[in-house]
């Protein structure tokens, strides 16, 4: 492996060991990551996509030195994540989604000052860097307010400013848009895209397909602790080649009807998404078999809304990859 | 780094309504306990010693629960991972937290003395006022360093609160904060001798009553330095263990 890569993961594995009970202790083992290998080029925006519990966060935490791998190796900017921990930490930033990770009872400015000191930003540069980042994330004027009064979006933006204080070469973003409203999420995507454009390597984990599709140069789909597919968004879309998607809006679809749909000839996958009272039923089938008539027959007697037949998207390819795992 | 870190953690701790309430109530309770214990023992002339000892108990509680609680709180609020991820030696990251708890504990000492004066009329007369101030500072530093040694355990264990709870009363007793260690069983002697709290409490008592302050201050400082060295080594080891055991985060 050469130094053209910002991140190199080779056969990373991580097993969590635990113990439950006092009188009769029982040991538990969970293999969260099972041999993950990939490389990320310098300045690349790389996405790690997968369902809950797939091993995304564990992978990111092994790469950013928060967890030791059970086996395998990884390098960030050419530095070993186990042996050269401090060198790696100097070069990386880590931002995760959600409400946690900040000192709520302090102001945004106090948070940034403390982390600037902690992350070794030279004292004479701190003021300028903090002002620059507050401007970048749109928090100028709100920096003296306590973080506990910030909205989810503002906290997330402060997180990003915190992660960028020491101008890291590699930025790890672990589900940064989780729980953020659509407008804030769009601003967040623009910030991430701008960072990548200025040469920062970004490793992004997300649930949101549209986000990965819009931002990432390449995406690795991870499920069950292993990488199931890796490529550009256009390449990943090929995993759904030869398929056709039928979407049906329905109200009160019983489980038996969904099972019956799965048994129809030509049907590859079915998924149901609850949207309040409405259910969106998505059926993937072989493109050369028209299953729409069969689907509507199986749903006879159920109140239906719009029915739509379309080409597969990246999301459909993702569902196909994950379900095949 | 140390100064800004300490200031940050003092701010974070002092903005907690829960901790402010505890800080207001506990010194009154401790002053009351000390005064009534000594009155019952017909030793009214030693009330000032009782008040100082009670104040020291407050500093110890602050350090113990502050260090343990602060690290546990950081784990809950997701900041423990963020601070341990800094490219610094673990000791430089954790020391400001334990020094901050020692500083907030100073308030407990002062408040206990103040309540003792206001509620019970204890005359705050110290034989060596200057030595008392020096001994108090050394004592608080020592407790901060001792907290650092304990902090390594708190970083490693997710349920560190259980350990903190079991340590509170034994250290009060064994260090002679409230009762002289001479009245305790002989086997507690060696334990007391290695605790910085014992020497800190002795230095404060000597400064109050007029005994030799400086030997106790010296031993207290020496043990503090040892706590700093061992705490630093232990934290480096524990940080690696915590990365292996995945205990920096809540889950």
TrEMBL record, chain A:
Primary residence: membrane
Keyword tags: Antibiotic resistance, ATP-binding, Nucleotide-binding, Transport
UniProt xrefs under Gene3D superfamilies: P-loop containing nucleotide triphosphate hydrolases
Membrane topology of the entry: Peripheral membrane protein
Location of this chain's protein in the cell: Cell membrane
Family annotation (Pfam families): ABC_tran (PF00005), DrrA1-3_C (PF13732)
Occurrences of domain ABC transporter (ranges): 7-249
PROSITE patterns registered for this protein in UniProt: ABC_TRANSPORTER_2
One MF term in the entry's GO annotations: ATP binding
Protein name: ATP-binding cassette domain-containing protein
